[in-house]
Amino acid sequence: MAGSPVDWLTAHRDLLAAQPRGPALDVACGLGRHAMMLAGMGFTVDALDVSDTALESLDAQARRRGRAIHTKRVDFRTDDWRPERSYQVVVDTYFLERSLFGRITDALAPGGLLFFETFMEGQPDCNSRYLLAPGELRPSPGSRSSMLARAASMIAECFPA
User: What is this structure's pTM?
Assistant: First the structure.
């Protein structure tokens, strides 16, 4: 069962509510806590993850609650995933795969929102591969979308160096 969405996303519910209803994307969705929230707000959600078990759980939960969520198994590190449409909202929390930056930002519809939360450089005892550098995530040139990025809290639970 999906847990609660990250506080940062729920704190911006007003921005989400102001978005036209349409497609939303939950990158590395896990059990679907953000997908369930977005679908509950009226978005049609594409929820992508590498775990078949997590996606099966999300499918069952979405069916029980009558939510418009389409799940797909994707290994972002090895599959050549390309967005199939434009999205009003894209959510990516605690998953950093640099090769996706351009594809994710290009997938945003004009006026769309990207919520991106991950660990930043300076996190002690972590592998730098999983730490975002300041200014590293940037919108595509000419983008007419909004990107909200936040550094995750400094916690010890990261991938060791």
Answer: 0.81
